């Protein structure tokens, strides 16, 4: 194949839209949303933060799920520490103190 033909084929491939990993497993959803939410989704598309309204919805939901997961982890961690015996709490505090002191000597910018 000539170099020119290869270049044209490569250019045609580059113009073909690619499915994101989200695009492979999609379910149709038809709904209405508040005008300000729709404007937010359109802004995500127009600023290039997402390729489509559907992807913008996916991203927004993913962020919400991430925040909820973090909140659940925070509550579970707090419950764990609140449930420790005084002796176990003292051990945890001693470990935390040692970790804090040892981490002070690490230069994370120089770590591989």
How is this structure best described in words?
The protein is an all-alpha fold. It has a domain of 71 residues. The protein is 65% helix and 0% strand. It contains four helices and no strands. The longest helix has 30 residues. The radius of gyration is 25 Å and the shape is elongated. About 4% of the residues have low confidence.
**Structure annotation, total helices:** 4
Order of helices and strands: HHHH
**What is the overall pLDDT average?**
84
> Main sheet?
none
Could you outline the blueprint of secondary structure elements for this entry?
Elements: H1 3-15, H2 35-46, H3 53-82, H4 86-103
Summed up:
By secondary structure, this protein is mainly α.
Entry keywords:
65% helix; mainly alpha; 112 residues; elongated
